[in-house]
Design a protein that fits this description.
49% of the residues lie in helices and 7% in strands. The protein is mainly α and 76 residues long. It has a two-stranded antiparallel sheet.
Length: 76
């Protein structure tokens, strides 16, 4: 009964690292919007701790949207 739908189709979109489509302010805004959306769906506070994302994405120099979605699903 998963209410949160994630699009995993764009495996080359870089959120963080060299070649990122987002600058640092846009990345923070993106994370904030994701937190707000998840909190609304779960009906409870939810925050993304970037160190948790880094642990899940360990050994990679870039954070791709696909990898972020996988990490987010694990955190939820």
């Amino acid at each position: 009964k998963d209410k949160i739908k994630m699009n995993l189709s764009n495996k080359k979109f870089i959120l963080w690292g060299d070649g990122s489509a987002l600058d640092s302010i846009a990345f923070v805004n993106f994370i904030t919007r994701v937190e707000q959306s998840v909190s609304k769906e779960l009906k409870k506070d939810f925050s993304i701790k970037l160190d948790k994302i880094h642990k899940i994405n360990k050994g990679k120099s870039k954070l791709y949207l696909n990898d972020f979605n996988i990490a987010l699903a694990k955190l939820i």
